[in-house]
Amino acid sequence: MKGGSEMILVIGGAxxxxxxxxxxxxxxxxxxxLDNLSTGHRxxxxxxxxxxxxxxxxxxxxxxxxxxxxxxAVMHFAANSLVGESVANPIKYYENNVASTIILLxxxxxxxxxxxxFSSTAAIYGIPQEYLLTEDSSANPINPYGRSxxxxxxxxxxxxxxxxxxxIVLRYFNAAGAHESLSIGEKHDPETHLIPxxxxxxxxxxxxxxxxxxxxxxxxxxxxxxxxxxxxISHAHILALLALLSGEKQNETYNLxxxxxxxxxxxxxxxxxxxxxxxxxxxxxxxxxxxxxxxxSSEKIKNELGWEVKFTLPEIIKNAWDWHKKK
Length: 327
Fold this sequence. Notes:
The strands form 3 sheets. The protein has a 7-stranded parallel beta sheet with strand order 3-2-1-4-5-6-10, sandwiched between helices. The radius of gyration is 19 Å and the shape is globular. The longest helix is centred in the first third of the chain and has 21 residues, at 90-110. The protein is of the alpha/beta class. It starts with 6 loop residues before the first strand and ends with a helix. It has helices at residues 16-25, 59-68, 83-88, 90-110, 144-163, 194-202, 230-246, 264-275, 299-305, 313-326; strands at residues 7-11, 31-35, 50-53, 71-76, 115-121, 166-172, 174-176, 209-212, 224-229, 252-256, 261-263, 281-284, 293-294.
């Protein structure tokens, strides 16, 4: 497929998940990355992709890009995604995640680009009522981050009816791991994700690990989450893109998770086992709004698009550990 004049635009392709998607997508398509590098990294962008520094909410940046290149589809990874920050600074989240995305969608329609892949989140579900969350589970986000993502999901439905926009929404659970080449991996500032925090501690870069709450209604009292390798997420995006472009699937929503829940304590123990090192743990109060468990059913995307989860939790941790040691 690679070599045609039409290109795939990846917004936020210098970020953690976006850069891993780009690394896989360039094997098949011509790719343009638009990123303002506010949280992404220039070194993370595959050299086969064309990089343009700019903002998804800047009409001049977008008009220049869409007028200079033939864009076939847009994949959007450029949201702000820290739950705590969204509570403290909701303006930032509604401006970037909602208002700027509307500017992007308007520009796409102006240039007759009608194919859109949107990165959404398990945060749209809020406090789950079921053990396994399906795409039909109630959406009741409990923070501005989750609400901003759900707003765009609803906007996409309206745009589809009014303007013939074709979209696929992918709701992630907990992304983790590094690319098999170990050339890119998970690097946030500040780091808020459990697996890299534990690995940084085991490398001597953090004094201890905090477990937030030990009295949840779970077997060991700590929160349970669903961890999915970032490369598995990337492959799901490519399957979704191909299905969208072929007309096989349009205006669909899919969960991306392993379907297996691991508690915070179990993840720390798995990290200790993989690394052969012992963690220092402190137990602190719960964080506001943390559900006891978030576990995905991904049967829909497996059945409809043939997606497969290839990485187990120990493999995710081993892969991430190899990358963190190499840095």
